[in-house]
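Quick one: co-fold with 2BA.
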Amino acid sequence: MKLIMAIISDEDSNSVISELGRQGFGVTKLCSTGGFLRSGNTTIMIGADEDKISEVIDIIKKKCKTRKKAMPNLDISGSTGITGMAFPVEVTVGGATVFVLNVEQFEKL
Ligand code: 2BA
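Sure, here it is.
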């Protein structure tokens, strides 16, 4: 068994979770915050057999399209001399950052 942890945008989370559920995968949704943008994103955890990993990744890929977005980048370091000044930066949002971890033991008690 493997544990897939995927960081996805909030906007894509409902359609990904619905599709994973329709295909019979169990999903846990966690509210998370990106370290760069400091804005909310969604982390989903899916436990699945090794031979199902590509199916899960295909669903995530299909439902999480990348797009460009101008985002205010809060300068919390104070490097501008004015702490809290916002710069617009263009970032790619959407898509997914996916980790596949080995699961040593899986039990439902
Ligand atoms: P954030 O850290 O808020 O990053 C959001 C997006 O901002 C990133 O998308 C990337 O396009 C851009 N970005 C990040 N760091 C940057 C930098 N130093 N300079 C310029 N642009 C930068 P993704 O790479 O798709 O990442 C989306 C979210 O996935 C991240 O949100 C973070 O929550 C998570 N993530 C990405 N790589 C990770 C890693 N190696 N470990 C843990 N979480 C990760």
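If it helps, The chain has two helices and six strands.
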